[in-house]
Design a protein that fits this description.
CATH class: Alpha Beta
Strand order of the largest sheet: 2-1-3-4
Order of helices and strands: HHEHEHEHEHH
Number of domains: 1
Largest sheet: 4 strands, parallel
Shape: globular
Number of strands: 4
Structural class: alpha/beta
CATH superfamily: Lumazine/riboflavin synthase
Distance between the termini: 22 Å
Radius of gyration: 15 Å
Strand content: 15-25%
Helix content: 40-55%
CATH topology: Rossmann fold
CATH architecture: 3-Layer(aba) Sandwich
Length: about 150
Amino acid sequence: MKGLEAKTISEKAKKGIYGIIYTSWNSEIVEDLLAETKKELLNQGVSLENIIIKEVPGAFELPLATKLTAEMDNMSTVISLGAIIQGDTPHFDFISSACINALQSIALETKVPVICGVLTTNNFAQAKERSDPEKMNKGREFALSAMNMVDIIS
């Protein structure tokens, strides 16, 4: 994320309203993503009162909660967090495709940036590596992407 790290975060982005929708499914993974996303927003100067956090059961429920949050007054961006891990059935393909396509549609429809923070991995170990705060935790990247999108389109 060298490009995002090099960019200076604007005052406009620091004053933005950030929605974070996260899943309780695969909570061991998602809770780390949530903690790092929130931590980075705060580290970059976003006020706690400008961060709205909501929990949904799973990735299939993310789009509806994301849309309702995006439609809230003064919402700057929504970060949707989840983890869909490949199993033995095609369920992974259906859920990941439906979720990610819906999140993109919401951004285009509402014109509010939606950051797709949904990990889609082949196994638990890959998901854990991408969420581990001591390794490549993607939560930080999702927060910086959200702040950069606020700069770009707000």
